[in-house]
Design a protein that fits this description.
- There is one protein chain.
- With 150 residues, the protein is α/β, with parallel strands linked by helices.
- It has 5 helices and 5 strands, in the order αββααβαββα.
- It has a 5-stranded mixed beta sheet.
- β1 and β2 form a beta hairpin.
- The longest helix is centred in the C-terminal third of the chain and has 14 residues.
Length: 150
């Protein structure tokens, strides 16, 4: 039986925890094809000093390398936080098949909160989006991270 969205989000949450070791915002992302995880990454902006080192972008890069192709139309990206405009643009450009995310990002979310780049017919690709998967757990991880820094 293939893993459920809840199961996969549990793996993404575990990946997000790895961000804490280097002071990055705890966001984890997986790329899944046919029920198998082909890439799993977490935020590494602080670690790498790279503003583009969001979990989603890193996971897409790893998945493209692992699969030997950049078109990921048969893949699902599972991420603990709603993607920003940069990451949503990367999903469009990767031709991702589906997005699953946990916590909404009311300040920067580009997959339903502020914008929905994945369902804009003016762009060259659209993708299905499933929201609020284990949202409370995803949000709690972020809330705890930022509470420690205040």
């Amino acid at each position: 039986m293939p893993p459920t969205d809840d199961d996969l989000m549990g793996l993404a949450l575990a990946e997000a925890q790895r961000s804490l070791a280097h002071g990055d915002v705890p966001v984890g992302a997986l790329v899944v094809v046919d029920g198998a995880v082909v890439a799993a990454r977490h935020n590494e902006r602080e670690l790498l000093g790279d503003p583009t080192a969001h979990a989603e972008v890193l996971a897409l890069r790893d998945a493209a390398e692992a699969l030997g192709r950049w078109r990921l139309s048969d893949a699902t990206l599972v991420v603990t936080l709603e993607p920003c405009a940069m990451c949503a643009g990367a999903l469009v450009n990767a031709r991702i098949g589906r997005l699953v995310f946990g916590a909404r990002d009311l300040k920067a979310g580009a997959c339903g909160s502020l914008y929905h780049l994945g369902s804009d017919p003016r762009l060259n690709h659209e993708f299905a989006t499933t929201i609020d998967v284990r949202a409370a757990e995803c949000a709690a991880l972020l809330t705890a991270f930022f509470a420690e820094r205040r």
